[in-house]
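Subject line: Sequence and fold of a protein, written as structure tokens
Body of memo: The sequence and its backbone structure tokens, given next.
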Amino acid sequence: MNLMYSLSGFAVGLLVGVTGVGGGSLMTPLLVFLFGFKPAVAVGTDLLYASITKTAGVFVHHGKHRSVDWRIVAFMALGSLPAAAVTLYVLKNLMAVGKEVTGAITFTLGIALLLTACALLIRSILLRNKVSNQEINDEDSNVDNAGRFSPRWEKIATVFTGVVLGVLVTLSSVGAGALGTVALLFLYPKMSTLKIVGTDLAHAIPLTAVAGLGHLSLGNFDLELLGSLLVGSVPGIWIGSHISAKIPEAYLRPVLAILLLVIGFKFVLQ
């Protein structure tokens, strides 16, 4: 058991519980740059870590806040789980290439981090617009999960969003949080922020579990690292989920976005 891994797990878990983002986008770069793990091992271990950690967060969001829309979770999973399985199949067939696989994972990780950083900033604008619209159209606030599109296109868009997340998360372990919440904010503008965080966390559990088990079968996994991370992250996300309705994200989001931009460029240019 490594104390530094556990402290890192606690810090990242706390951030995920409060904001719904920051799991893979912070933990995987920490494992690669701070602790020196290979990108493939960092991605595989982080995916299993994320699935277990986010389960603890969903217990709070569903049990205490009632902030999970399971219908939306099901439509996203309908796209993301098959996409994750196909991506893993492709990775398994490319394993003999070695360096090329590692390079592809590293580059995808960098792109996912850059997209996540942009998503965090866009999320701020969408959240501000959502609050303004709710103040103007207060009488419509009872239509909590009204979508942006017609019911038919809303389902197709939600499944397609799941496909994109499935590929990105399986390759890089990044994107389930920030990219998922931005997609939900765009697709369901009247959904409360708390429900968006809870729904996104719930969808991330089966996706990261499938992708993580796939990487485990490929040998991209470190058991000691996983145990140490979980010792810190489970209490971290439990505390963060309880205080998620009280702490404003406005101070954390710009700092996190800038940090991810820097790390993303480093991965892409590596």
